[in-house]
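Supplementary notes (optional reading)

For those who missed the lab, this is the record we used. Protein: Cell envelope-related transcriptional attenuator domain-containing protein. Length: 419 residues.
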Amino acid sequence: MSDPGEQHEGTAQTPAPRHGRMPRRGAASTYLKLAASVVAVLAVSTAGVAAFAAIDLWNSFKPPLELENEAILDDVPDIGAMDGGLSFVLVGSDKRPASGAFGDPEEESGELNDVTMLLHISQDHSHVEVVSFPRDLIVSVPECPDPADPEGEPLSAMSGVKLNSVLSHGGFNCVASTIEALTGVTIQAGGIVEFDGVAALSTAVGGVEVCLAERIDDDYSGLHLDAGTHSISGYDALAFLRSRHGVGDGSDLGRISNQQIFLASLMRTVKSGGTLQDPVKLYSIAKAVTSNMQLTSEVQDPARLVSIARALQDIDLSKVAFIQYPTGYNDDKTAVLPSEAAALVNAALQADRPVQLDPTANENTEFGTVADPAAPPPAEPVPADPADPPATSAPVESLPPDVPGQDGDDVRCSTANAG
């Protein structure tokens, strides 16, 4: 999400919602089951910014977002029945809350998609990829319905524009269409989260542990933390996710690295902290999400949320890959363009193949992270028993060393920007 001092162009436009109410479920067991399904989803899909799924915990339901492809989910009770798995776009909007906590919402009226992530759950539920797209990535935008007049003339296609301008141009559906055009992957679901959602979620889980290799001071985001390990929540967590001047090379690419650190730690917290067995914490998390996030209508179906949660809850953390979409700077370093390695990421997503990150990738970048020296070394692989039948796992897409990222079980530390 953007810094308070950054200028915003354009006027916020929000896709016209289709209003509806979800029927109440009276039984307490149903209530907790649905809350648990949300948390299981959160465990792998929260976007530096919030979570992948939410449910109407009684009356906090938000009007759904429009998405052209969501009808694909009609009559699909289990995502395992979907050819190619499920792909979900999460947008972190920099729209200022009415409280004025991040600037005057009237004066700073631009609504940019400062965080754009694609979460892909494989059809066989064996792996997950979470791809972060830089806000300054130059993209082509396809023709999109006009959110202000959905039945009228569509908005014209554009080329050579920055990704973070698409939300204000054509709304959420246009962001999803742009990511589809970029990656070749069909998007079936998605959601938008704003500033307060991140603070509320991190508080609901009881704090998220992050590691800093050096002290970080960023007056723009308000992040001021000493080197070492910290449990952060509320607006400290939001500052950690928003900071770019204080981390890495001071760019949005460094901010993405911070977001990946946070998300991997959030996954570990939810999976190992007893959260799934704590009804009070389950409720707090679900309430934080549903009160602060808009979803496309098809994933507001409780049965479908349970299906998604079941797909995610047993996936090993080492099979969840956080990938920074591979890019290179343009000539004047004001934006980034997809690099050759982007085609490999696209191909893996299209073919529903797991990826393997190069272990040296983060060390080859100025905006990367460093391994936590206090983290235990990875376990030695167990030799295969010759008597066991051969493994039948899917082919793996090995990514080159210019594609940074981390796995869900990888503990890394944020680096400071000396400038």
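If you only remember one thing from this example: The longest strand covers residues 113-121.
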